[in-house]
Amino acid sequence: MEKTKELAAKRGVCVCTELVDLSTARWEEEKWDQIICIFGHFPTPLRLKTLESVKNAVRPGGLYVSEVYSVHQLPYKSGGPKELDFLYRPEEFLQIFNDWKIIHFFMGEVIRHEGSLHNGLSHVIQFVGQKPER
């Protein structure tokens, strides 16, 4: 989180970060203009609960942006969870955010060089969705 704040300060933008335990977090409804999840991997029940919470916590017109490893990542040696239960399925995004405008959706191979834990050819899901205005 400190790195996020440092990068934001260098670029002259304001970001709000919060460190929470997702299993007990209380998400305030329609609080956030944008929520971003990059390589946030959790067991399926917690993941689905979190995605539903994100959906409710984004303000109308706001965005949810995510890049995560897909269920097809296991044979790749480029990082990510080693348990299938921690990997995302495309239908999770498409079903939970089915009433949102999908700005970008991609599932496939990408090359990532983001440190020793995320390096090389990877199989990801990218999602950018916009919550409808009222």
From TrEMBL:
This is Methyltransferase domain-containing protein. SUPFAM superfamilies: S-adenosyl-L-methionine-dependent methyltransferases.
